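Recall from the previous lesson that a structure prediction takes nothing but the amino acid sequence as input. Here we apply that procedure to UTP--glucose-1-phosphate uridylyltransferase from Roseinatronobacter bogoriensis subsp. barguzinensis. The sequence below is the only information supplied.
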Amino acid sequence: MSSITKAVFPVAGFGTRFLPATKAMPKELLPIIDKPIVQYAVEEAVQAGITELIFVTGRNKRAVGDHFDANLELESQLLAKGKSDLRDMVRNIVPEGVSCIFVRQPEPLGLGHAVLCAAPAVGKNPFVVLLADDLMQGSYLPTQALVEAFSRYPHTILSVSEVDAEDVSKYGILKPGVTGDDGMINVDGLVEKPSIEDALSRMASFGRYVFTPEIFDILRGLAPGAGGEIQLADAIDHLARQGKVSAILNAAKRYDCGDKFGYLTAIVDVALSNPVYGAQFLALLRDRLERPESGNPDG
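The prediction returns the following tokens.
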């Protein structure tokens, strides 16, 4: 099995939880300070050695492509104004040697269908899937961990974390098997958003996966699942029942940026960790806590 050089980013969703902001702007371009959510996922993939980025887009998602495309007019204006540092930053959003492919999902038929739309671009190669809603921060990010694990176990591998009992109904939950001495977890099944009573564990699968092309054959044969959509979780469960799925624990900090509070949390934490204005931002937060009326526009 070849090494992994391809990553799929399903970015065709409507982002209804962030309306009206996402009426005209893709949710993947919502900024964490000055960088869109999807760019964090792209940087994570590139850091793991990915050289081909495959974006599965939908209607009104042209702006995602524009963000990763060259903008020669903007670069020229920045250079003319002596802002070469900003010009270099814009130019290097996609590093040299990394290419982008954009595939259209003709209608919103589910995450599984979005991944299937990438099949012609993926070909017969293994690949990772990254959901931009899941922002990861840390020294060892899950895509790197998945790529390294795949080199030892060339089959479907999920990045997972334990969640609180009240949150199991939000995620795909594992039916875990034996955990090896190296920390690899055998996955006997995956249930999408079970009730706490029906959940077989509190181990949840998040938006980072590695697959072999076998997943496409499974997706093509799937009947619509929950919501009348082709569910990626159903395809993973099918492979798990054949003993072809493993999982590894996610060592990074995860922010659910598909949720408003998770998005706000990510903004605060990223701001606090910034070496330039982190201390100033912390002082602002402390001031607001001590004098809450100072942040009230009507006060």
